Amino acid sequence: MITKSDVAKLLDTVLSIPGMSETVKIDLKISRKNVLLLSYFIEQGLLLEKDDSSLMGIVSEESLTDLKNISEECLQKASLVELNQKLQTLSQAFK
After folding, report:
1. In sequence order, what are the residues at sequence separation of 6 or more whose Cβ sits closer than 8 angstroms to the Cβ of residue 59?
2. What's the N-to-C CA distance of the chain in angstroms?
3. Superkingdom, according to UniProt (predicted)?
4. What is the per-residue pLDDT for 67?
5. What angle do CA 23, 27, 28 make, to 5 degrees?
6. What is the DSSP string of 52-80?
7. Running along the chain, 95 residues long, what does each successive block of 10 average in pLDDT?
8. Among 48, 45, 40, which Cα is nearest to 90's?
9. How far apart, in whole angstroms, are the C-alpha atoms of residue 55 and residue 62?
10. Backbone torsions φ then ψ of 68, nearest 5 degrees
11. Helix or strand or coil: residue 32?
């Protein structure tokens, strides 16, 4: 049986493959709805507790910052920054 530790080691190995740090240009056309959802899922993933027993434990701070920047860039390009902020304010009001 494969453990979380084994999966984390495998993921770490894959992320360490030469060329994985190279930037790539992706021409992506998605709806504004999906931009909001993508941004939401990235933010929720970044809120996960980072411990060694989870896959998030092996992700570098630089990679997490890059993901946050990607989320923000997508929102900016879709002109959804203000709407996203208002939705976050509403969702926090229900917590």
Report:
1. 50
2. 38
3. Bacteria
4. 92
5. 115
6. TTSGGGGS-HHHHHHHHHHHHHHHHHTT-
7. 81 90 92 96 84 70 91 96 93 81
8. 40
9. 15
10. -60, -40
11. helix
Q: Quote the CA–CA distance of 76 and 95 in Å, as a whole number.
A: 26
At 63 the pLDDT is: 87
**Total-model pTM:** 0.79
Say what the pLDDT of residue 53 is.
Answer: 58
Q: What is the pLDDT of residue 54?
A: 65
34, 6 in Cβ contact below 8 A? Answer: no
CA–CA separation, 8 vs 59, rounded Å? Answer: 10
Extract the tokens encoding 63.
């990679």
